[in-house]
Amino acid sequence: MTDAARLKATVYVGGLDNAVNEKILADAFLPFGEIVDVSLPKPDLPSSTDPHRGFGYVEFEIPGDAKEAIENMDQSEIFGRVIKVSAAKPQKESNEGLGSRTAVWEQEGWLAKHAVSDEDKLAAEQARSALESRPDDPMQGLEGLDVAGPQPA
Description:
The chain has helices at about 5-10, 20-30, 65-75, 110-115, 120-135, and strands at about 10-15, 35-40, 55-60, 75-80, 80, 85. It is an alpha+beta fold. The longest helix has 16 residues, at about 120-135. It is elongated and about 95 Å long.
């Protein structure tokens, strides 16, 4: 099975209680079809006592089974906790987005998406020059208005 097909057949299950293990999760999703794999990611910190990070993935043999599981299990309850079930998203590269070790502007595609066109540079320069041509004192030109009442003819 290709990676894209595997992703379509995989569901994300969030909001899991610490008492939930891979067998319990597999048993909960078994009515929807043949399960290929169940994974519960472990905590990043080795000192953590939690058995998993509170979410997991269930991979089905057929993508249609995953869709049926999402429709039936989203907002259901396991071990007294309401779970969130949705289609799994592809895992981000370690050098993408927040937490990466490279600057955002050095990442592939960022510059193409955020580069400023010559047209935009020209418009910004025109706006700057229009601001510079205005008088510095906003009260300039109001000298004759400081006297109240009717003006003598």
